[in-house]
Amino acid sequence: MKLVFAGTPEFASTALEQLLAAGFEVPLVLTQPDRPAGRGMKLQASPVKQCAQQHGIRVLQPRSLRLDGKYPDDAAAAQAALAASGVDIWVVAAYGLLLPQWALEMPRLGCLNIHASLLPRWRGAAPIHRAIEAGDAQTGISIMQMDAGLDTGAVCLAQSLPITAQDTTASLHDKLAELGGQLIVQALTQAKALPLSTSRLPATPQPSEGITYAHKIEKHEAWLDWRLPAQQLAQRLRAFTPFPGGALQYGAETIKVWQAEALATAPVAQATPGQVLAADAQGVLVACGSGALRLTQLQRAGGKRLPAAEFLRGFSLAVGTVLSLPEQV
Predict the structure, then answer these.
(1) What does the alpha-carbon distance between residue 312 and residue 315 come to, in Å, rounded to a whole number?
(2) Which of 82, 95, 93 is nearest to 19 (CA)?
(3) Among 302, 317, 308, 312, which residue's Cα sits nearest to residue 258?
(4) Cα 220 from chain centroid?
(5) With a threshold of 0.85, does the pTM exceed it?
(6) Which residue, 147, 181, 159, 214, is CA-closest to 21?
């Protein structure tokens, strides 16, 4: 069985490595164009491109796959190369470009997507972040037969994974990437056993109940809204690690917040949301809509992430100060 792999970030390169280790033939890889990155903003190849090059696999980087879009020449060249590849199936993981109808219909066994949630919960761009932010007890991987909708296709395989109280998007991403690689190998192993007359893997349509959408993470979401419950803010901080983190405004200075714990029983009945209740070796305690949030790892602009005790040795946060709300920043 030969396959085309389409993906861009580390989540996808983990799956590609597992497919290659399992012996699947991948003559062609699609990935996003090189992007500026790092302090020098030099063009950098995606993790999937780097993986493909290490294995001597041909790489295509079209800016679009839409024949009627902004880059029709890119799309036409990709279409020709994909048609000539003679592959049986496409595997897609966090590619970043929508597949038009011609792409969905080209391979004999269609296109399989590795999605980092238990569909139909958390369709869309940021399923790992949103699951942690919402306080979900579990998430997982769905191997989905792609169709024209946004993560609406029938599910071939799915496996759940618990979300621990310590999980951040970074840690959960790595666990889900490994699981995604294992499940796509399992799905393609099943596909290899199908008779040539079969056009698709067995799959179960998604239920119409329980649909949620994981909207893209925006930088402005980093601002901590002290009117929210402390537990919700703690979940957001875990969800927004490593990007975009949390942020608060203290006077003229923006301070990043990377770790915190919610205290549901803190004595805050008379406190204003955003009021600094304590600033000591344990952390910076801030009143919230309910409970209080103890900030335990902070960072000044241009500085390093520091434990609260070390941070406070070089920066004074006055107890009683009421920190700004997002619309006041």
Answers:
(1) 5
(2) 93
(3) 308
(4) 17
(5) yes
(6) 181
